[in-house]
UniProtKB/TrEMBL annotation:
Pfam families: CMD. Antioxidant protein with alkyl hydroperoxidase activity. Required for the reduction of the AhpC active site cysteine residues and for the regeneration of the AhpC enzyme activity. It catalyses: N(6)-[(R)-dihydrolipoyl]-L-lysyl-[lipoyl-carrier protein] + a hydroperoxide = N(6)-[(R)-lipoyl]-L-lysyl-[lipoyl-carrier protein] + an alcohol + H2O. It is an enzyme of class 1 (oxidoreductase). It comes from Xanthobacter dioxanivorans. Coiled coil: none annotated. InterPro entries: AhpD, AhpD-like, AhpD_core, CMD-like. Its EC number is 1.11.1.28. This is Alkyl hydroperoxide reductase AhpD. Disulfide bonds join C131-C134.
Length: 181
């Protein structure tokens, strides 16, 4: 399964989604590790197993095992952090912001890949999950690490495209496993 497999399954009503998906791997403002790690982390974040598997397969030839694990870790840790920090940010009772989170998240400090790459993946996942506090935090770290605004914008654009692929497939009632039979 690959991006080509996903493109073949996207229905006609989502032509723009298909065209945007076609352009993903031609993005040249990110390193291959940044790009393919984004595909993995964002694919997992869609919670669509077909999308996640296809993007992971596409990325496998471009990522080391450590980078693949780090991209998966970014999706996993942000799934937890985005829920928690979105709650503390949105709750009217600001006392929650002063309480210790008591969440283990050591992978953020030692992700096994370049910290800026992990932060970029975490930012994109946070955008998909709608956590403003995490978006601000990761964007600040990225800017301090020298990542340009256009690169940050590209990462979020990639996240948006990947999210739209999952929605288009779900809207069509498609399952790649069923379609392949």
């Amino acid at each position: 399964m690959s991006i080509e497999t996903l493109k073949d399954q996207i229905p006609a009503f989502a032509k723009d989604v298909k065209l945007n998906l076609s352009a993903l791997t031609r993005e040249d403002s990110l390193t291959p590790q940044q790009l393919y790690g984004l595909l993995v982390a964002c694919g997992i974040t869609t919670r669509n197993p077909d999308v996640a598997r296809a993007l992971e397969a596409e990325a496998a030839a471009h990522l080391t095992p450590a980078a693949m694990d780090a991209a998966k870790a970014a999706a996993s840790i942000m799934a937890m952090n985005n829920v928690y920090y979105r709650f503390t940010h949105l709750a009217s009772n600001k006392a929650y912001e002063t309480l210790p989170a008591k969440l283990r998240m050591s992978v953020i400090g030692n992700p096994g890949v370049d910290k800026a790459d992990f932060e970029l993946w975490s930012l994109a996942v946070s955008a998909m999950n709608g956590c403003g506090r995490c978006i601000d935090s990761h964007e600040k770290v990225l800017r301090e690490a020298g990542i340009r605004e256009d690169q940050i914008q590209v990462a979020v654009r990639i996240a948006a495209i990947i999210a739209s692929v999952a929605v288009a497939l779900e809207a069509a009632g498609q399952s790649l496993a069923v379609a392949a039979e």
